[in-house]
């Protein structure tokens, strides 16, 4: 954010200041693994501590806004749509898995920092502050949690003639493996790379010889 010659942040509209402070809160929480103090937030944002309470009634209100912003999936959806469709299918899907895994890691890091046992419920009317100004005019459902019913806009990542399941089913399997392969507790520390996730779903792990030996239709 811009600063004045005094080192303080340049004046912002209240809505923009709220967004800037939520971003600082999230960054500090992830960096330090705990809830930041208001003095830490103010120092990192380049504002006086009292500025926080001119746009938020309390620190709890700032934390609630930051959590709502951090867990909003709209930025991930934007990244899905930005994937280069001219790439081969495997590379498109690796980009898809990379975005999914980054979101899982970001969410888990913030949950640990804030002491949350599960993601908070997102309201359909969420403002999605962390998604950027250009998303404020999007439909309210853009802030609903990611699940396989929300992949209609990215089904073109899959070449349907090259797989034996529907594009919907393929993306759903990549989503499931991306989550479990990115969660330290589920994976017992043996995390999967996006390439491993995609190759496991697309090609499996059996060798060509094993596939032939176990294929009852192989002549």
Tell me what the structure shows:
- The protein is mostly helical and 219 residues long.
- It folds into 2 domains: 1-71, Tetracycline Repressor, domain 2 (Orthogonal Bundle); 73-219.
- Helices cover 54% and strands 0% of the residues.
- It has helices at 14-32, 38-45, 49-55, 59-71, 74-82, 89-114, 167-182, 184-187, 194-203, 208-214.
- Helix 1 (14-32) crosses helix 2, helix 2 crosses helix 3 and helix 7 (167-182) crosses helix 9.
- The model is unreliable at 129-141 (pLDDT under 50).
Number of helices: 10
Q: How would you sum up the global shape? A: elongated
Catalogue the unreliable spans. Answer: 129-141
Helix content: 40-55%
> Using only CA atoms, what is the Rg?
21 Å
Tell me about the largest β-sheet.
Answer: none
Give me the strand/helix succession. HHHHHHHHHH
Derived from helix and strand composition plus strand pairing, the structural class reads mainly alpha
Number of separate domains = 2
By DSSP, the count of extended strands is 0
On the 0-100 scale, what is the average pLDDT? 82
Distance between the termini: 67 Å
Q: What is the percentage of strand-forming residues?
A: under 5%
Protein name: TetR/AcrR family transcriptional regulator
Domain HTH tetR-type: 15-74
Organism: Intrasporangium calvum
Pfam family, one: TetR_N
Give structural attributes.
transcription; 54% helix; mainly alpha; 219 residues; Homeodomain-like_sf; 10 helices; elongated; TetR/AcrR family transcriptional regulator; Tetracycline Repressor, domain 2; single chain
Per-chain topology:
Elements lengths: L13 H19 L5 H8 L3 H7 L3 H13 L2 H9 L6 H26 L52 H16 L1 H4 L6 H10 L4 H7 L5
């Amino acid at each position: 954010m811009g600063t004045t010659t005094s080192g303080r942040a340049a004046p912002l509209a209240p809505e923009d200041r709220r967004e800037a402070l939520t971003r600082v809160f999230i960054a500090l929480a992830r960096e330090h693994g705990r809830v930041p103090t208001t003095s830490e937030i103010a120092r990192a944002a380049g504002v006086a501590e009292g500025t926080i309470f001119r746009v938020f009634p309390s620190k709890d209100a700032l934390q609630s806004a930051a959590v709502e912003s951090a867990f909003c999936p709209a930025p991930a959806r934007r990244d899905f749509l930005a994937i280069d469709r001219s790439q081969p299918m495997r590379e498109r899907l690796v980009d898809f898995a990379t975005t999914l895994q980054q979101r899982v890691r970001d969410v888990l890091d913030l949950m640990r920092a804030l002491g949350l046992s599960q993601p908070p419920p997102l309201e359909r009317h969420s403002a999605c502050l962390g998604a950027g100004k250009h998303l404020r005019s999007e439909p309210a459902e853009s802030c609903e949690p990611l699940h396989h019913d929300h992949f209609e806009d990215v089904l073109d990542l899959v070449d349907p003639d090259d797989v034996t399941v529907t594009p919907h089913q393929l993306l759903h399997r990549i989503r499931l493996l991306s989550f479990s392969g990115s969660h330290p507790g589920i994976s017992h520390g043996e995390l999967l790379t996006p390439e491993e996730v995609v190759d496991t779903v697309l090609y499996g792990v059996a060798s060509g010889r094993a596939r032939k030996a176990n294929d009852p239709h192989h002549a």
